[in-house]
Amino acid sequence: MAKIKDRLDVVEVLSGYMKLQKAGINYKGRCPFHNEKTPSFFVSPERQIWHCFGCGKGGDFFEFVKEIEGVEFREALKILASKAGIELEQFQSKPGESIDAKQKLLEICELATKFFEKQFQSSSGKEALAYLHDRGLTDASITEFRLGWAPNDWESLSVYLQTRGYQEKEIVDAGLAIKRSIESGREGVYDRFRSRIMFPIFEVSGQVVGFTARVFEPSSAKSGQPGLAKTGETMAKYVNTPQTLIYDKSRVLYGLSKAKLDIKKSDRCILVEGNMDALMSFQAGVRNVVASSGTALTPTHLRLLQRYTKNLGFCFDTDQAGAMATRRGIGLALAQQFNISILEIKDPECKDPADYVKKYPAGAGTSGAGGSSWADVVANAKPVIDYYFDRARSSYNPTSAESKKQIISAVAPFIKRLAGSVERAHWISQLSSLLRVPESAVSADIATFKDDLDVYTREDTVSQTPIAQSAPAPHEAPDVINEMILSLVLKAPTLLRDEIMTIEDNLVDDRTTNIIRQVVEEPFDNTQGKPFEFKTFATRFMGEEALQLEFAYLRSQELWQGFDDETLKTEFHNVINTARRRLINTRLTNLQFDVKEAEANKDQNRLTQLAGEFNELARQLILTHHLYGSKEKNKEIVQETEEKTESQVSSTEETSI
Ligand SMILES: [Zn+2]
Fold first, then answer.
1. Which residue has the higher pLDDT, 562 or 276?
2. Mean pLDDT on 227-250
């Protein structure tokens, strides 16, 4: 780990994930972890840390990689080690699964991807490429997702890989070749994927671990319509890499490595069925999209997504199978407490998102041929109950008892699972007025309804195969006011010395108090030519404390740059007053409860005493407003606090007078 720290630089690592701009001694950019228009994300090459003033996240580059890749420390270490070109033998994952064997398979998959990419130049490959263009894919998307072509040949890939030094067994282990049977009378292996369009499957970190292959027969090999092979009955439309040491279809979602950042940013993931759906959506600018890629969605898939968001938008194919898959996926997602919405494709000519994006390309707008863009479809997703309720209502036949039952069965599972009783009551009343049945009867029906989603909930608890890493614990954002105070202390410890000494207890948290105490005890003095030196000072601190100090220092560099002494003093007073108001507000809130209690007990003496305390706090509060003007930077904080204070003061007055 020390080696990695030496070889990599925070700016370099972060630049691989986001755009950074040099701004003075530091770098800044738009935070990848929250949505913002103006950059409040800063990186210090000198201190090797990053910190966002907006959402409070920050740390070293390990912390960044963990956060952005959604991985735990060990995986982050692996990613960074490969960037630094360091072998990580000491971090071998499981006994028996040597890094070497896995590494070999990854290399083979990477080589195979390159091989397939090149085959687009062959004559059969050109036809496959034309087919993809016809489906609406651009060259940019094809390149970005590294699609390729497996020619109709029994050995071309295997032979190629062997010339590159890989053993037959390794090629078979990677899932790319199959051992010939004894009956065939021949030795050796043959290629698994022939005459197929290849979609590499990337692991979260971006490495190719397997393939999804779509059958395609070029015209030279058959006579018939282009696209699906004539011998389609015997050839599956899609074939996946079998389970290998590096590929487990229940754990990989197609497109996640490219979509994860957008999923985090938008705090939402769109789930589609096919690779083409994901690709076309990505191409249309809706990039927070992943595909279950022909395999059924698993609880493990969902646990993987939980690292990035709790909000899912389902858009499965419009056919019967798609509806079933959606229902099943919803059941699983509900079991993991996802918020679910449904995307509706209303054009009957489009059976899936890929068709839809092709028919209504991005930018076509809502005025197009009667359909809105894919981005609009995504934006107009309906919460899951609304979706099923609206659908049931549109097909409701009031004269049929069966129809009533169908409506109940469509929405009951969701109403049952609603956490809020208000929301539940709302839906029961909706159903009651639609069906013209008393609410009590609807309630009873829902309670006794045999739940089709229960199956999936149970399935999830049975197959509790934990994913390699659970979601990283969200880093607790440091308190902004504490950080502002400390940043000023670090900016001008000598200038503010007198003021710093007057900071009363409880105004800042213990950790900040401790750091501040050490700053003022430091034997520094500008007049003696010994300025406060952060670099040496920082070496005293470790862990969370050190991080807090670094964040404050970065803020002091960025926020108080070029301020004159007088302004710095004003800023300090303002921030201290903000902290005081916060403290007084807390006390006022507590006082309210005391007053209520005293009133309930009819304790006149106590009430008089509390009124006195109230007056004193109110006086202090007014003082914090009068000392200095309010042209400060932290105006918003002050305003916010003021609003809160006013409402609390007035409510306290009502109760106490
Ligand atoms: Zn941020």
1. 276
2. 73
Bridge partners of 46, per DSSP, are none
The string over 349-366, giving b where at least 16 C-beta atoms fall within 10 Å of a residue's C-beta and e elsewhere, is ebebbbbbbbbbeeebee
Q: Report the 3 state secondary structure along 202-261.
A: ECCCCCEEEEEEEECCCHHHCCCCCCCCCCCCCCCCEEECCCCCCCCCCCCCECHHHHHH
Q: What separation in angstroms does the CA of 468 have from each of 65, 209, 251, 298, 472? A: 17, 16, 10, 15, 12
**Cβ proximity of 253 and 300 under 8 Å:** no
Q: Which of 309, 214, 204, 282 is nearest to 247 (CA)?
A: 204
- Pick the closest to residue 598 from 590, 620, 621 (CA basis): 590
C-alpha 34 to ligand 1 mean position (Å): 5
- Amino acid making up residue 197: I
- Centre of ligand 1 from the C-alpha of residue 82, in Å: 27
Q: How far is the CA of 30 from the centre of ligand 1 (A)?
A: 8
Terminal CA-to-CA distance of the chain, rounded, Å?
Answer: 64
Rounded distance from Cα 31 to ligand 1 centre (Å): 5
Distance 226 CA to ligand 1 centre (A): 49
Tens-digit pLDDT profile for residues 477-516: 568 888 999 999 999 888 888 888 888 878 888 888 888 8
Question: Which pTM was predicted?
Answer: 0.60
Distance 46 CA to ligand 1 centre (A): 21
* pLDDT tens, residue by residue, 142-197: 999 999 999 999 999 999 999 999 999 999 999 999 998 887 778 889 999 999 99
Q: Of 271, 273, 278, 336, which is closest to residue 310 (Cα–Cα)?
A: 336
For residue 35, the CA-to-ligand 1 centroid distance in Å is 7
Whether pLDDT at 465 is above 90? no
Answer yes or no: are the C-beta atoms of 163 and 174 closer than 8 Å.
no
CB 362 within 8 A of CB 284: yes
Nearest to 519 by CA among 547, 487, 551: 487
State both tokens at 21. Answer: 């701009």
Q: Are 494 and 501 in contact (CB under 8 A)?
A: no
